[in-house]
What we know:
By secondary structure, the protein is α/β, with parallel strands linked by helices. The chain has helices at about 10-15, 40-50, 60-75, 85-95, 110-120, 135-145, 165-175, 225-240, 245-255, 260-275, 295-300, 315-325, 355-365, 380-390; strands at about 80-85, 105, 130, 150-155, 180-185, 200-205, 220-225, 280-285, 310-315, 330-335, 345, 370-375. The chain folds into two domains: about 10-30 and about 60-255, 3-Layer(aba) Sandwich (Aspartate Aminotransferase, domain 2); about 260-390, Aspartate Aminotransferase, domain 1, CATH 3.90.1150.10. Helices cover about 40% and strands about 15% of the residues. Helix 3 runs parallel beside helix 9 and helix 4 (about 85-95) packs parallel to helix 5. GO terms for molecular function: carbon-sulfur lyase activity; pyridoxal phosphate binding; transferase activity, transferring alkyl or aryl (other than methyl) groups. InterPro entries: Cys/Met-Metab_PyrdxlP-dep_enz, Cys_met_metab_PP, O-succ-hSer_sulfhydrylase, PyrdxlP-dep_Trfase, PyrdxlP-dep_Trfase_major, PyrdxlP-dep_Trfase_small.
Amino acid sequence: xxxxxxxxxxxxxxxxxxxxxxxxxxxxxxxxxxxxxxxxxxxxxxxxxxxxxxxxxxxxxxxxxxxxxxxxxxxxxxxxxxxxxxxxxxxxxxxxxxxxxxxxxxxxxxxxxxxxxxxxxxxxxxxxxxxxxxxxxxxxxxxxxxxxxxxxxxxxxxxxxxxxxxxxxxxxxxxxxxxxxxxxxxxxxxxxxxxxxxxxxxxxxxxxxxxxxxxxxxxxxxxxxxxxxxxxxxxxxxxxxxxxxxxxxxxxxxxxxxxxxxxxxxxxxxxxxxxxxxxxxxxxxxxxxxxxxxxxxxxxxxxxxxxxxxxxxxxxxxxxxxxxxxxxxxxxxxxxxxxxxxxxxxxxxxxxxxxxxxxxxxxxxxxxxxxxxxxxxxxxxxxxxxxxxxxx
Length: 392
Protein backbone atom coordinates (compact mmCIF):
# COMPACT_ATOMS: atom_id res chain seq x y z
CA UNK A 1 0.00 0.00 0.00
CA UNK A 2 1.46 3.35 -0.99
CA UNK A 3 2.16 5.79 1.84
CA UNK A 4 1.46 8.91 -0.28
CA UNK A 5 -1.20 9.86 -2.84
CA UNK A 6 -0.38 8.84 -6.38
CA UNK A 7 -0.36 11.36 -9.20
CA UNK A 8 -2.72 10.99 -12.17
CA UNK A 9 -0.18 9.30 -14.43
CA UNK A 10 0.67 6.75 -11.75
CA UNK A 11 -2.99 6.02 -11.04
CA UNK A 12 -3.51 5.42 -14.77
CA UNK A 13 -0.81 2.74 -14.75
CA UNK A 14 -1.05 1.17 -11.30
CA UNK A 15 -4.48 1.58 -9.69
CA UNK A 16 -7.12 -1.13 -9.58
CA UNK A 17 -4.87 -4.12 -10.22
CA UNK A 18 -4.88 -6.98 -7.72
CA UNK A 19 -2.50 -9.75 -8.75
CA UNK A 20 -3.62 -13.35 -8.60
CA UNK A 21 -1.61 -16.17 -7.06
CA UNK A 22 0.21 -16.46 -10.39
CA UNK A 23 1.94 -13.13 -9.80
CA UNK A 24 1.23 -11.71 -13.25
CA UNK A 25 2.68 -8.28 -14.05
CA UNK A 26 -0.03 -7.28 -16.54
CA UNK A 27 -3.66 -7.49 -15.53
CA UNK A 28 -5.20 -10.91 -16.11
CA UNK A 29 -8.20 -11.50 -18.35
CA UNK A 30 -10.96 -13.64 -16.82
CA UNK A 31 -12.96 -14.97 -19.82
CA UNK A 32 -15.45 -16.95 -17.77
CA UNK A 33 -19.22 -16.77 -17.61
CA UNK A 34 -19.53 -17.95 -14.01
CA UNK A 35 -17.59 -18.57 -10.82
CA UNK A 36 -17.43 -21.63 -8.57
CA UNK A 37 -18.41 -21.46 -4.89
CA UNK A 38 -16.88 -23.47 -2.08
CA UNK A 39 -20.25 -24.53 -0.73
CA UNK A 40 -23.97 -23.99 -1.06
CA UNK A 41 -23.80 -21.64 1.91
CA UNK A 42 -21.13 -19.54 0.24
CA UNK A 43 -23.19 -19.36 -2.96
CA UNK A 44 -26.21 -18.21 -0.95
CA UNK A 45 -24.13 -15.58 0.86
CA UNK A 46 -22.73 -14.22 -2.41
CA UNK A 47 -26.13 -14.04 -4.09
CA UNK A 48 -27.67 -12.56 -0.96
CA UNK A 49 -25.06 -9.82 -0.76
CA UNK A 50 -23.79 -10.71 2.70
CA UNK A 51 -20.42 -11.90 1.36
CA UNK A 52 -18.37 -10.06 -1.27
CA UNK A 53 -17.00 -11.89 -4.26
CA UNK A 54 -17.64 -12.94 -7.82
CA UNK A 55 -21.04 -14.37 -8.75
CA UNK A 56 -21.72 -14.24 -12.48
CA UNK A 57 -19.78 -12.39 -15.18
CA UNK A 58 -22.77 -10.33 -16.28
CA UNK A 59 -22.25 -8.17 -13.20
CA UNK A 60 -19.07 -9.35 -11.45
CA UNK A 61 -15.80 -9.98 -13.24
CA UNK A 62 -12.28 -9.26 -11.94
CA UNK A 63 -10.95 -7.72 -15.19
CA UNK A 64 -13.96 -5.43 -15.47
CA UNK A 65 -13.55 -4.52 -11.82
CA UNK A 66 -9.90 -3.55 -12.42
CA UNK A 67 -11.04 -1.14 -15.14
CA UNK A 68 -13.85 0.27 -13.01
CA UNK A 69 -11.57 0.93 -10.06
CA UNK A 70 -8.86 2.51 -12.21
CA UNK A 71 -11.24 4.85 -14.04
CA UNK A 72 -12.92 5.77 -10.74
CA UNK A 73 -9.52 6.72 -9.35
CA UNK A 74 -8.84 8.92 -12.38
CA UNK A 75 -12.24 10.68 -12.21
CA UNK A 76 -12.22 10.97 -8.42
CA UNK A 77 -15.43 8.93 -8.16
CA UNK A 78 -16.69 6.63 -5.41
CA UNK A 79 -18.16 4.14 -7.88
CA UNK A 80 -17.86 3.16 -11.51
CA UNK A 81 -20.07 0.84 -13.54
CA UNK A 82 -18.68 -0.38 -16.87
CA UNK A 83 -21.10 -0.87 -19.76
CA UNK A 84 -21.11 -2.40 -23.22
CA UNK A 85 -20.91 0.96 -25.05
CA UNK A 86 -21.07 4.68 -24.49
CA UNK A 87 -24.75 4.76 -25.44
CA UNK A 88 -25.51 1.95 -23.00
CA UNK A 89 -23.86 4.06 -20.28
CA UNK A 90 -26.33 6.87 -20.99
CA UNK A 91 -29.17 4.35 -21.17
CA UNK A 92 -28.18 2.91 -17.79
CA UNK A 93 -28.22 6.37 -16.21
CA UNK A 94 -31.66 7.13 -17.60
CA UNK A 95 -33.14 3.77 -16.60
CA UNK A 96 -31.46 3.76 -13.21
CA UNK A 97 -32.32 7.30 -12.11
CA UNK A 98 -35.59 8.17 -13.86
CA UNK A 99 -39.19 7.09 -13.46
CA UNK A 100 -42.45 7.89 -15.24
CA UNK A 101 -43.38 11.52 -14.65
CA UNK A 102 -39.80 12.78 -14.40
CA UNK A 103 -38.45 15.57 -16.58
CA UNK A 104 -34.98 15.97 -18.11
CA UNK A 105 -33.34 19.12 -19.46
CA UNK A 106 -30.77 18.28 -22.13
CA UNK A 107 -28.44 20.39 -24.21
CA UNK A 108 -29.22 20.58 -27.92
CA UNK A 109 -25.50 20.16 -28.51
CA UNK A 110 -25.21 16.43 -27.91
CA UNK A 111 -24.43 13.42 -30.08
CA UNK A 112 -27.36 12.82 -32.42
CA UNK A 113 -28.03 9.33 -31.07
CA UNK A 114 -28.28 10.72 -27.54
CA UNK A 115 -31.12 12.98 -28.66
CA UNK A 116 -32.90 10.08 -30.34
CA UNK A 117 -32.40 7.80 -27.33
CA UNK A 118 -34.09 10.30 -25.06
CA UNK A 119 -36.94 11.24 -27.39
CA UNK A 120 -37.75 7.93 -29.05
CA UNK A 121 -36.94 5.35 -26.37
CA UNK A 122 -36.84 6.84 -22.85
CA UNK A 123 -39.72 9.13 -23.79
CA UNK A 124 -41.98 6.13 -24.35
CA UNK A 125 -41.95 5.43 -20.61
CA UNK A 126 -43.49 8.67 -19.40
CA UNK A 127 -40.35 10.79 -19.12
CA UNK A 128 -40.46 14.25 -20.73
CA UNK A 129 -37.60 16.31 -22.12
CA UNK A 130 -36.69 19.93 -22.82
CA UNK A 131 -33.76 20.82 -25.08
CA UNK A 132 -31.87 24.09 -24.58
CA UNK A 133 -28.81 25.90 -25.85
CA UNK A 134 -25.78 24.55 -24.02
CA UNK A 135 -24.24 27.90 -23.13
CA UNK A 136 -27.46 29.81 -22.31
CA UNK A 137 -27.74 29.62 -18.53
CA UNK A 138 -31.00 31.58 -18.52
CA UNK A 139 -32.52 28.99 -20.85
CA UNK A 140 -31.45 26.18 -18.51
CA UNK A 141 -33.11 27.88 -15.57
CA UNK A 142 -36.27 28.66 -17.53
CA UNK A 143 -36.57 25.03 -18.62
CA UNK A 144 -36.50 23.65 -15.09
CA UNK A 145 -39.76 22.22 -13.80
CA UNK A 146 -40.78 20.95 -10.35
CA UNK A 147 -40.32 17.38 -11.63
CA UNK A 148 -36.93 17.96 -13.30
CA UNK A 149 -34.72 15.09 -12.21
CA UNK A 150 -31.66 15.39 -14.47
CA UNK A 151 -29.72 17.96 -16.46
CA UNK A 152 -27.62 16.34 -19.20
CA UNK A 153 -24.69 17.89 -21.10
CA UNK A 154 -21.69 17.11 -23.22
CA UNK A 155 -18.88 19.57 -22.61
CA UNK A 156 -17.06 20.10 -24.89
CA UNK A 157 -19.99 19.23 -27.10
CA UNK A 158 -20.05 17.15 -30.27
CA UNK A 159 -19.16 18.41 -32.86
CA UNK A 160 -18.79 22.20 -32.34
CA UNK A 161 -16.84 21.96 -29.05
CA UNK A 162 -19.13 24.39 -27.19
CA UNK A 163 -18.42 24.47 -23.46
CA UNK A 164 -20.65 25.08 -20.48
CA UNK A 165 -19.57 26.20 -17.02
CA UNK A 166 -19.96 22.92 -15.12
CA UNK A 167 -19.79 24.48 -11.67
CA UNK A 168 -22.43 27.10 -12.49
CA UNK A 169 -24.75 24.52 -14.06
CA UNK A 170 -24.25 22.13 -11.13
CA UNK A 171 -25.14 24.88 -8.67
CA UNK A 172 -28.28 25.64 -10.68
CA UNK A 173 -29.27 21.96 -10.74
CA UNK A 174 -28.73 21.51 -7.02
CA UNK A 175 -30.71 24.62 -6.09
CA UNK A 176 -33.69 22.99 -7.82
CA UNK A 177 -33.10 19.51 -6.38
CA UNK A 178 -31.88 18.10 -9.68
CA UNK A 179 -28.77 16.16 -10.70
CA UNK A 180 -26.17 17.13 -13.29
CA UNK A 181 -24.91 14.44 -15.67
CA UNK A 182 -21.82 15.27 -17.76
CA UNK A 183 -20.60 13.35 -20.79
CA UNK A 184 -16.82 13.73 -20.43
CA UNK A 185 -15.92 11.84 -23.61
CA UNK A 186 -14.08 14.66 -25.42
CA UNK A 187 -11.82 15.60 -22.50
CA UNK A 188 -11.46 12.42 -20.41
CA UNK A 189 -10.29 12.83 -16.80
CA UNK A 190 -6.82 13.66 -18.16
CA UNK A 191 -8.15 17.11 -19.13
CA UNK A 192 -11.33 17.62 -17.05
CA UNK A 193 -12.83 16.17 -13.86
CA UNK A 194 -16.52 17.17 -13.74
CA UNK A 195 -17.18 15.63 -10.31
CA UNK A 196 -14.67 18.03 -8.76
CA UNK A 197 -16.63 20.88 -10.37
CA UNK A 198 -19.92 19.78 -8.81
CA UNK A 199 -21.37 17.33 -11.34
CA UNK A 200 -23.17 14.32 -9.86
CA UNK A 201 -22.68 11.74 -12.62
CA UNK A 202 -20.06 11.36 -15.36
CA UNK A 203 -20.52 9.15 -18.41
CA UNK A 204 -17.92 7.97 -20.91
CA UNK A 205 -17.73 6.25 -24.21
CA UNK A 206 -14.63 4.19 -23.44
CA UNK A 207 -14.61 3.38 -27.16
CA UNK A 208 -13.04 6.78 -27.77
CA UNK A 209 -10.00 8.23 -25.99
CA UNK A 210 -10.00 5.82 -23.05
CA UNK A 211 -9.07 3.07 -25.51
CA UNK A 212 -7.30 5.39 -27.91
CA UNK A 213 -6.81 2.92 -30.74
CA UNK A 214 -10.32 2.14 -31.95
CA UNK A 215 -10.23 -1.49 -30.84
CA UNK A 216 -13.31 -2.11 -28.72
CA UNK A 217 -16.72 -0.82 -27.63
CA UNK A 218 -17.38 0.14 -24.04
CA UNK A 219 -18.79 2.77 -21.71
CA UNK A 220 -18.77 3.81 -18.09
CA UNK A 221 -20.89 5.62 -15.50
CA UNK A 222 -19.19 7.24 -12.50
CA UNK A 223 -20.46 8.92 -9.37
CA UNK A 224 -21.39 8.13 -5.77
CA UNK A 225 -22.04 4.73 -4.20
CA UNK A 226 -25.78 5.25 -3.84
CA UNK A 227 -26.77 6.40 -7.33
CA UNK A 228 -24.10 4.63 -9.37
CA UNK A 229 -23.07 1.82 -7.05
CA UNK A 230 -26.69 0.78 -6.45
CA UNK A 231 -29.22 2.35 -8.84
CA UNK A 232 -27.19 2.25 -12.06
CA UNK A 233 -25.50 -1.02 -11.09
CA UNK A 234 -28.95 -2.61 -10.73
CA UNK A 235 -29.64 -1.84 -14.40
CA UNK A 236 -26.41 -3.59 -15.35
CA UNK A 237 -27.07 -6.61 -13.17
CA UNK A 238 -30.64 -7.05 -14.35
CA UNK A 239 -30.39 -5.67 -17.88
CA UNK A 240 -27.07 -7.16 -18.91
CA UNK A 241 -25.64 -4.20 -20.86
CA UNK A 242 -22.24 -5.03 -19.43
CA UNK A 243 -18.64 -4.78 -20.58
CA UNK A 244 -16.79 -7.93 -21.62
CA UNK A 245 -13.58 -8.91 -19.77
CA UNK A 246 -11.51 -8.71 -22.94
CA UNK A 247 -12.74 -5.19 -23.71
CA UNK A 248 -12.06 -4.17 -20.11
CA UNK A 249 -8.48 -5.40 -20.49
CA UNK A 250 -8.08 -3.35 -23.68
CA UNK A 251 -9.33 -0.24 -21.88
CA UNK A 252 -6.96 -0.88 -18.99
CA UNK A 253 -4.08 -0.83 -21.46
CA UNK A 254 -5.49 2.37 -22.98
CA UNK A 255 -5.67 4.13 -19.64
CA UNK A 256 -1.96 3.52 -19.05
CA UNK A 257 -1.08 5.96 -21.84
CA UNK A 258 -4.09 8.29 -21.56
CA UNK A 259 -2.25 11.30 -20.16
CA UNK A 260 0.55 11.15 -22.73
CA UNK A 261 -1.87 10.66 -25.62
CA UNK A 262 -4.20 13.50 -24.63
CA UNK A 263 -1.28 15.93 -24.46
CA UNK A 264 -0.21 14.88 -27.96
CA UNK A 265 -3.78 15.10 -29.31
CA UNK A 266 -4.11 18.61 -27.87
CA UNK A 267 -0.84 19.75 -29.37
CA UNK A 268 -1.70 18.48 -32.86
CA UNK A 269 -5.26 19.82 -32.70
CA UNK A 270 -4.09 23.31 -31.74
CA UNK A 271 -1.65 23.41 -34.64
CA UNK A 272 -4.31 22.16 -37.05
CA UNK A 273 -6.90 24.68 -35.84
CA UNK A 274 -4.45 27.57 -36.21
CA UNK A 275 -3.55 26.42 -39.73
CA UNK A 276 -7.20 26.11 -40.74
CA UNK A 277 -7.99 29.66 -39.62
CA UNK A 278 -5.62 30.98 -42.31
CA UNK A 279 -7.27 29.13 -45.21
CA UNK A 280 -9.40 31.27 -47.53
CA UNK A 281 -11.94 28.50 -48.29
CA UNK A 282 -12.91 27.97 -44.65
CA UNK A 283 -15.73 30.02 -43.16
CA UNK A 284 -15.32 29.05 -39.50
CA UNK A 285 -13.10 26.95 -37.23
CA UNK A 286 -14.37 25.52 -33.94
CA UNK A 287 -11.69 24.71 -31.36
CA UNK A 288 -11.58 25.80 -27.70
CA UNK A 289 -7.88 26.55 -27.89
CA UNK A 290 -8.45 29.43 -30.29
CA UNK A 291 -8.92 32.88 -28.76
CA UNK A 292 -11.85 33.31 -31.15
CA UNK A 293 -13.77 30.43 -29.56
CA UNK A 294 -16.70 31.86 -27.54
CA UNK A 295 -15.78 29.83 -24.44
CA UNK A 296 -11.99 30.03 -24.76
CA UNK A 297 -11.50 31.63 -21.33
CA UNK A 298 -13.85 29.12 -19.70
CA UNK A 299 -11.93 26.27 -21.30
CA UNK A 300 -8.72 27.66 -19.86
CA UNK A 301 -10.23 27.65 -16.37
CA UNK A 302 -12.17 24.40 -16.51
CA UNK A 303 -9.88 22.14 -18.54
CA UNK A 304 -6.15 21.43 -18.43
CA UNK A 305 -6.08 21.06 -22.23
CA UNK A 306 -8.30 21.90 -25.19
CA UNK A 307 -8.84 18.40 -26.58
CA UNK A 308 -8.30 16.68 -29.90
CA UNK A 309 -11.48 17.58 -31.83
CA UNK A 310 -11.43 20.32 -34.47
CA UNK A 311 -14.52 21.16 -36.53
CA UNK A 312 -14.63 23.59 -39.42
CA UNK A 313 -17.07 24.87 -42.02
CA UNK A 314 -15.99 24.99 -45.66
CA UNK A 315 -17.49 27.37 -48.18
CA UNK A 316 -19.81 25.59 -50.61
CA UNK A 317 -21.98 23.44 -48.32
CA UNK A 318 -22.23 19.66 -48.47
CA UNK A 319 -20.71 19.35 -51.93
CA UNK A 320 -17.56 21.18 -50.87
CA UNK A 321 -17.38 19.29 -47.55
CA UNK A 322 -17.64 15.92 -49.29
CA UNK A 323 -14.96 17.00 -51.75
CA UNK A 324 -12.55 17.69 -48.88
CA UNK A 325 -13.37 14.38 -47.20
CA UNK A 326 -13.12 12.30 -50.37
CA UNK A 327 -9.81 13.90 -51.37
CA UNK A 328 -8.04 12.69 -48.22
CA UNK A 329 -5.70 9.74 -48.62
CA UNK A 330 -4.46 9.27 -45.05
CA UNK A 331 -7.28 10.41 -42.75
CA UNK A 332 -9.82 7.67 -42.05
CA UNK A 333 -13.36 8.46 -43.20
CA UNK A 334 -15.20 7.19 -40.16
CA UNK A 335 -17.48 8.61 -37.49
CA UNK A 336 -15.42 7.26 -34.60
CA UNK A 337 -13.14 9.62 -32.69
CA UNK A 338 -10.44 9.55 -30.05
CA UNK A 339 -8.20 7.28 -32.10
CA UNK A 340 -4.44 7.42 -32.61
CA UNK A 341 -5.35 7.64 -36.29
CA UNK A 342 -6.93 10.91 -37.43
CA UNK A 343 -10.54 10.51 -38.52
CA UNK A 344 -12.81 12.74 -40.57
CA UNK A 345 -16.59 12.83 -40.94
CA UNK A 346 -19.47 14.94 -42.19
CA UNK A 347 -21.75 15.32 -39.13
CA UNK A 348 -24.85 16.41 -41.06
CA UNK A 349 -25.01 13.07 -42.88
CA UNK A 350 -23.41 10.74 -40.30
CA UNK A 351 -23.38 11.36 -36.54
CA UNK A 352 -26.32 13.78 -36.74
CA UNK A 353 -27.85 12.45 -39.94
CA UNK A 354 -31.03 11.13 -38.33
CA UNK A 355 -31.98 14.49 -36.86
CA UNK A 356 -34.60 16.61 -38.57
CA UNK A 357 -33.46 19.68 -40.52
CA UNK A 358 -34.83 21.84 -37.70
CA UNK A 359 -32.87 19.90 -35.08
CA UNK A 360 -29.69 20.20 -37.13
CA UNK A 361 -30.19 23.92 -37.54
CA UNK A 362 -30.71 24.54 -33.82
CA UNK A 363 -27.66 22.39 -33.01
CA UNK A 364 -25.51 24.31 -35.51
CA UNK A 365 -24.90 21.32 -37.79
CA UNK A 366 -24.24 23.10 -41.09
CA UNK A 367 -24.04 21.30 -44.44
CA UNK A 368 -20.46 22.49 -44.85
CA UNK A 369 -19.34 21.30 -41.40
CA UNK A 370 -16.50 18.77 -41.13
CA UNK A 371 -15.29 17.19 -37.89
CA UNK A 372 -11.72 15.98 -37.54
CA UNK A 373 -10.58 13.87 -34.63
CA UNK A 374 -6.92 14.84 -34.71
CA UNK A 375 -4.71 11.81 -34.23
CA UNK A 376 -1.07 11.22 -33.43
CA UNK A 377 0.40 11.38 -36.93
CA UNK A 378 2.83 14.21 -37.69
CA UNK A 379 0.90 17.46 -37.95
CA UNK A 380 2.39 18.31 -41.35
CA UNK A 381 1.01 15.09 -42.81
CA UNK A 382 -2.45 15.82 -41.42
CA UNK A 383 -2.37 19.32 -42.88
CA UNK A 384 -1.14 18.09 -46.28
CA UNK A 385 -3.89 15.49 -46.43
CA UNK A 386 -6.62 18.04 -45.72
CA UNK A 387 -5.12 20.49 -48.17
CA UNK A 388 -5.80 18.10 -51.06
CA UNK A 389 -9.49 18.97 -51.14
CA UNK A 390 -9.43 22.51 -49.76
CA UNK A 391 -7.82 24.11 -52.79
CA UNK A 392 -6.16 27.52 -52.69
